[in-house]
Amino acid sequence: MERVTVLGSTGSIGVSTLDVLSRHRDTFELYAITANSSVEAILQQTLAHQPRYVVLRDESSAEQLATQLRRAGSECEVLAGEAGLCKVAAEADTVMAAIVGAAGLLPTLSAVEAGAKVLLANKESLVMAGQLFMDAVERSGSTLLPIDSEHNAIFQCMPGVHRQGLDAQGVRRILLTGSGGPFRQRSVESLASVTPDEACAHPNWSMGRKISVDSATMMNKGLELIEACWLFHCPPERIDVVVHPQSVIHSMVEYVDGSVLAQMGQPDMRTPIAHALAWPKRMESGVASLDLIVQARLDFEAPDEQRFPCLRLAREAAELGGSASASLNAANEIAVEAFLAEQLPFTAIPTLLERVMADVENVEPLTLGDVQAADLQARERARSLVREFGF
Ligand code: NAD
Ligand code: MG
Question: Whose Cα sits closest to atom 30 in ligand 1?
Answer without folding.
Answer: 121
